[in-house]
Amino acid sequence: MTLSKALQLYRWFLPLLELDIHPKLVQYIKLCESELGIGSEFVRAPRLTLKGAEREKILAIIHKSLKNRP
């Protein structure tokens, strides 16, 4: 793999990787699974499913990543 291709892959994947540093990682993973059709976004208590602006922000990251997948 060339440096150029590696950098392209890194830039594509970084927004998804940054979701890993948030306390709501489980909800983010479940939402992504739901968008890919391999699971449900519902989580067990005490966690709550994502709602509102936060949910839309994460969906935008997921959709942009899927659309621009190398």
Which assembly state applies to the chains in this document? single chain
Major β-sheet profile: none
Large-scale geometry: elongated
Based on secondary structure, the structural category is mainly alpha
Beta fraction: under 5%
Into which percent range does the helicity of residues fall? 55-70%
Low-confidence runs = none
- List how many beta strands DSSP finds: 0
How many DSSP helices?
A: 3
Please state the CA-atom Rg, rounded to the nearest Å. 14 Å
Describe the structure.
By secondary structure, the chain is mainly alpha-helical. The protein has one domain. Helices cover 61% and strands 0% of the residues. The protein is built from 3 helices and no strands. It has helices at residues 3-17, 25-36, 52-67.
Keywords summarizing the entry:
70 residues; 61% helix; mainly alpha; single chain; 0% strand
Helix and strand layout, with pairings?
Blueprint: H1 3-17, H2 25-36, H3 52-67
Helix pairs in contact: 2-3
What would you say about this model in short?
With 70 residues, this protein is mainly alpha-helical. Helices cover 61% and strands 0% of the residues.
